[in-house]
Specification:
The chain is mostly helical. The protein has one domain: Helix Hairpins (Orthogonal Bundle). Helices cover about 75% and strands about 0% of the residues. It is elongated. The N and C termini lie far apart (about 55 Å).
Length: about 100
């Protein structure tokens, strides 16, 4: 069995990479990808802690599936909004999307 410290360290590294991607990128699609990476780090923590605390129950895996389903909806909605913004502005640069009116 993999030690819990390794799972937490890997999850923290993935979350840090995702956080860096959200804070440093200007392309909205890449920001969505970075958010997905952060959610996958959370899923890794959920499954790791569930297997460490109660290996006979599937609570961590069930929560991870819920997070994956919510993330899929978030990406679908976000990409739909970005597609509409790209058609109106011909750019998905976050710095250029400061106005609510087009």
């Amino acid at each position: 069995m993999i030690p819990l410290e390794h799972v937490v360290a890997l999850s923290a590294i993935l979350f840090g990479i995702g956080l860096y991607g959200v804070l440093s990128r200007r392309n909205a699609v890449l920001i969505l990808l970075a958010v997905e990476l952060m959610l996958n780090a959370v899923n890794l923590n959920l499954v790791g802690f569930a297997m460490y605390l109660t290996p006979d129950r599937l609570a961590g895996q069930v929560f991870a599936i819920f997070v994956i389903a919510i993330a899929a909806g978030e990406v679908a909605l976000g990409l739909g909004i970005l597609l509409r913004v790209y058609r109106a502005r011909a750019s998905v640069n976050v710095d250029e999307l400061d106005l609510l009116r087009w």
